[in-house]
Design goal:
The strands form two sheets. A four-stranded antiparallel sheet has the order 1-4-5-6, with no helix packed on it. Strands 2-3 form a two-stranded antiparallel ribbon. Helix content is about 15%, strand content about 45%.
Length: about 120
């Protein structure tokens, strides 16, 4: 019985918290409306933090470069229901030796896809 009560409370709180606004921008989309947003982010780093101390270069790779392409879409299904998609595609490469685990200097693919 305790597990059923915990599950009910978790679902109730989730519904209660998300009932008033849509994710990200705070507004519901009207039924039939779709909103698409694309973004691009580029990063490169050759130092990183260990606690509060900045150290470098990045082990094995020396420097890591990332290109991140994201697509965010929301579609109004009803007055109170939206379908939301977030799909980031990440391409990362290192300038040093290949990774000792997989033997690669580059990785790419979709990461943290959410619907």
């Amino acid at each position: 019985m305790k597990n059923k009560t915990s599950l009910f409370c978790a679902l109730f709180l989730t519904v209660s918290i998300t009932y008033a606004q849509g994710i990200i921008d705070g507004f519901y989309s009207a039924p039939g409306n779709i909103s698409l947003t694309a973004s691009y982010t580029a990063t490169a780093y050759d130092e990183y933090f260990v606690g509060e101390e900045k150290v470098g270069p990045v082990p094995v790779h020396n420097k890591i470069t990332q290109d991140i392409f994201s697509l965010y879409a929301k579609y109004g299904v009803t007055e109170q229901l939206m379908l939301i998609l977030n799909a980031p595609y990440i391409s990362a490469s290192g300038e040093g030796d290949p990774d000792p685990v997989n033997g690669e200097t580059k990785q790419s693919g979709f990461q943290d896809l959410s619907i």
